[in-house]
Amino acid sequence: MGLQLTRGGEYAIRAMTYLARYPEGHVASLRDIGRAQEIPESFLAKILQSLVHAGLAVSQRGAHGGFALARPAEQITMRDVIEAVDGPISVNLCTLDPEECKRSSTCEVHKAWLRAQEQLMDVLGGVTLKSLAPQPVA
Amino acid sequence: MGLQLTRGGEYAIRAMTYLARYPEGHVASLRDIGRAQEIPESFLAKILQSLVHAGLAVSQRGAHGGFALARPAEQITMRDVIEAVDGPISVNLCTLDPEECKRSSTCEVHKAWLRAQEQLMDVLGGVTLKSLAPQPVA
DNA sequence: GCCAACAGGACCGTTTCACTCCGGTCTCGA
DNA sequence: TCGAGACCGGAGTGAAACGGTCCTGTTGGC
Ligand code: SF4
Ligand code: SF4
Domain range holding B16? Predict the structure, then answer.
């Protein structure tokens, strides 16, 4: 199996959709999220840190602290989330930076990968957390 | 960087497009292919074996032996080649076999991944070696 | 000041990646 | 017939990535 998402990316999306189910600004603790979405808590900690660093989530320390979305759920896409934890999506060496392969200027295959990449980005960039969340919870 | 093709997959496509430049049935040796496409030869050996096993290439042993496409270049796609060496393409756990994740039946994210997978397959399955080969060499 | 909760960095076992090596086998052709 | 040329196939390998864990801060509410 190739071309597959990492576990970290999958968990990140689960965590973010969990937050998206609640009203804007709702804070949930690491533990809440981990329990609800069945994500190992110590691993989730790392993932949430990445999301905070990327500016997609905000954290609140101290008692009653936790995590919340940094902006409305309709303004965060699957692509944003995945790239925050796994780094930029690049379906082949040459799709992120054509300089990586000296053949790229004349390579027909390169063009095919660019199309593939674009399609993938379109799908992932077109899905917002809002559209992923089940009926909101009050 | 996530969701990226392996080197093996990339090399496989290079090797196959090399074969596709020649008239049907043309045999090229491991060494020829490796030199022309700048692929480490001992690694290429493994890759070509996978392609032969998958029925995409045929091999000829003994002096003047080598490899050739098993069918016309217009009947082999990028998808075929990649799956032969890297195994089935699956963009997430749940896209190959929904049973892998018990959430899949109700998961909205799952549907998004299915769309992404389909788009990717469409692109890769729509590109034949014929269309990738530069002007054929006599 | 205590306790709840995140921050951040070190660590770690396993798997995958990207190759390499080598003995074996087949085949042509001199 | 015999040997050089070429693939077969399985084992091995070093480095890196994956998928976590742990532990010591630090912060903030009550
Ligand atoms: S697809 Fe073409 S340009 Fe891209 S890495 Fe392969 S050879 Fe280079
Ligand atoms: S996307 Fe949904 S169905 Fe697929 S693995 Fe993640 S949770 Fe499971």
Answer: 7-86+128-132
